[in-house]
Amino acid sequence: MKRTLRMGRAGPVLVIAVMAVILASCGERATVDTARPVVIFVPGIWDTGGKFDRMAEALGKAGWQTYEVALAPNDGSVSLVRLAKDLRKFVNGKLGWGRRFDIVAFSMGGLVARSYVQRMGGLARVDHFVTISTPNNGSATADLGNLPGFLEMQPDSDFLRDLNRDAKRLSKTLFTSIWTPLDLVVVPADSARLPVGSEVKLTVLTHNWMMTDSRVIKAVLAALAAKK
User: Fold this and answer.
1) Does residue 125 carry a pLDDT above 70?
2) What tens digit of pLDDT does each residue of 43-53 get?
3) The CATH fold of domain 35-225
4) Phi, psi of 56 (to 5 degrees)
5) Beta bridge pairs of residue 175
6) Which residues, 6+ apart, have CB-to-CB distance to 122 below 8 Å?
7) What is the pLDDT of residue 48?
């Protein structure tokens, strides 16, 4: 005998409630505490998750909420402008459209962040902007590649000329460039400097060590704590 199952009046309500829970869990995001300042980390070329772990721990203890955007692909195969659009999408998805925040960016990530800040509306939302070992004026090492991202990081590229012609707009944020004169990835090392904001020059032995050196982390904390 074929039995027909019938839903009671509560049946459709129960189904809808279950579906809502499932959909919510699929799209679940970390809750942003509106009482605590937010820092968005922007990684460099070829960087994988975890590059900012030590810095995130220090900032978390000091009161900041930290989120790291996963740029993909981050191997120089796409334009930095395309990655800047991904950064904008990440920020809007994580924080909404009005929340103010800070940026700490490493190496190529600094150029991605500058494109977002200077060309995609980020200037109106970013309070503190810190770049670490970023080739703000290009790097000779970028000549080793012919992919779009490498071409944009070459000295005097159209991309960099566009950003640098009005780099002083960054003064609307509290901008800080942190760099090491021993950098062999950003060549020349002082390409990290810009005629705006503050700079911190630290003698750190390698490009990648800038992300874990205690002096750099201390400088980042100081930069984020600065007041206009």
Assistant:
1) yes
2) 999 997 789 99
3) Rossmann fold (3.40.50)
4) -60, -40
5) 129
6) 88, 91, 103, 113, 116
7) 79
